[in-house]
DNA sequence: TTTATTTGTTACCACCTTAGATACAGATCA
DNA sequence: TGATCTGTATCTAAGGTGGTAACAAATAAA
């Protein structure tokens, strides 16, 4: 299935904001770098604003800025700000409870999936918007 | 977007096969435990068969069996057998190459995403169909 | 005060993926 | 010969995703 690009786009935008500290960037300008449309950017940034990661300013000269130092914004916190769901999906229909495996497989899988997602998130916690920007600049 | 349930269903079926060693289980019976339809099971199991994880037998008394010991089938190998794609998706449109961030963000993200997915897979490698079955039975 | 700019939000749409459902040819066994 | 089961194709409904347009509200500049 086509995965959501929201996390990637959010990191792209945050890195862009970090590259221009103190400047408010408009949704339309941001959309130009991401190669998408302004409404999509605004919808996405709304989640980050409600999580306190960015600040928005309407009107002439307005736009988006980081609300916290780039060093303090971990990739894990961005993922959470977006309300991204679990990586693994359970059955679409409840398994047959008359079957021992069907009755307990979800509990067993929840434990395993939890460990796997935690391991992934611990890696995301090691990176910040600031480190992303450094990585981008190192490729120039 | 709604995540694929294929990985979960595959693990469910493999655990079921491990619970009945030496017995061939028909797609219709398996579908009854998973609470889905036989064609979906057959489509899914086709991937596992091509990866050498299960064996199928047509005709009366036929069905599906594990092709390898349950202890040797890691959750990571199941994920690979299904050809599951990456956890993180890049932009749907290529970012603007005239922007420094747009030009290099995908390279930077590929590195980070690779680490995170590797950490997740190392966890999946720690579990097998046999350990899943033990976990299920421990909940009885 | 007026005008231009920008956010915040809604609505609608086309597209894609998923999984359910049905059908049937081919293989296998009794 | 008939019953069973796989392998595969096709069709469909449902849901998610992102592109597009529109407009009220807020803000700043003229």
Summarize the structure.
Two copies of one chain form a homodimer. Chain A has one domain (6-138): Orthogonal Bundle (Arc Repressor Mutant, subunit A).
Describe what this molecule looks like in 3D:
- The structure is a homodimer of 140-residue chains.
- The first copy, chain A, has 140 residues and is mainly alpha-helical.
- Chain A has one domain: Winged helix-like DNA-binding domain superfamily/Winged helix DNA-binding domain (Arc Repressor Mutant, subunit A), CATH 1.10.10.10.
- Chain A has 6 helices and 2 strands.
- Chain A has helices at residues 6-19, 27-34, 38-50, 75-81, 100-124, 129-138; strands at 54-57, 63-66.
- In chain A, a hairpin with a 5-residue loop joins strand 1 and strand 2.
- The longest helix of chain A is centred in the last third of the chain and has 25 residues, at 100-124.
- Chain A is elongated.
- Chains A and B meet through helix 1, helix 2, helix 5 and helix 6 of A and helix 1, helix 2, helix 5 and helix 6 of B.
- Chain B binds a DNA duplex (30 and 30 nucleotides) through helix 3.
User: What is the total number of structural domains of chain A?
Assistant: 1
Q: Give me the count of strands of chain A.
A: 2
Could you state the oligomeric state of the chains shown? homodimer
Tell me the major beta sheet of chain A. 2 strands, antiparallel
Give the CATH H-level superfamily of chain A.
Winged helix-like DNA-binding domain superfamily/Winged helix DNA-binding domain
User: What is the CATH C level class of chain A, in words?
Assistant: Mainly Alpha
Spatial ordering of strands, largest sheet of chain A:
1-2
The interface involving the most residues is between: A-B, 62 and 62 residues
Spans of chain A of at least 5 consecutive residues whose pLDDT stays below 50 are none
Helix content of chain A: 55-70%
Q: From N to C, what is the helix and strand string of chain A? A: HHHEEHHH
Give the N-to-C terminal Cα separation of chain A: 33 Å
**Can you count the helices of chain A?**
6
CATH 2nd-level architecture of chain A: Orthogonal Bundle
CATH topology of chain A: Arc Repressor Mutant, subunit A
Could you tell me the mean pLDDT of chain A? 96
- The computed structural class of chain A is mainly alpha
């Amino acid at each position: 299935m086509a995965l959501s690009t929201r996390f990637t786009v959010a990191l792209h935008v945050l890195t862009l904001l970090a590259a221009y500290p103190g400047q408010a960037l408009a949704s339309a300008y941001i959309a130009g770098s991401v190669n998408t449309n302004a409404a999509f950017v605004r919808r996405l940034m709304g989640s980050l604003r409600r999580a306190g990661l960015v600040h928005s300013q309407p009107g002439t000269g307005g736009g988006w800025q980081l609300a916290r130092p780039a060093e303090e914004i971990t990739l894990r916190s961005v993922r959470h700000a977006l309300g991204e769901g679990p990586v693994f999906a359970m059955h679409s229909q409840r398994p047959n409870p008359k079957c021992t495996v069907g009755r307990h497989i979800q509990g067993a899988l929840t434990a395993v999936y939890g460990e796997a997602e935690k391991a992934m998130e611990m890696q995301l916690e090691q990176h910040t918007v600031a480190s992303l920007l450094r990585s981008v600049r190192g490729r120039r």
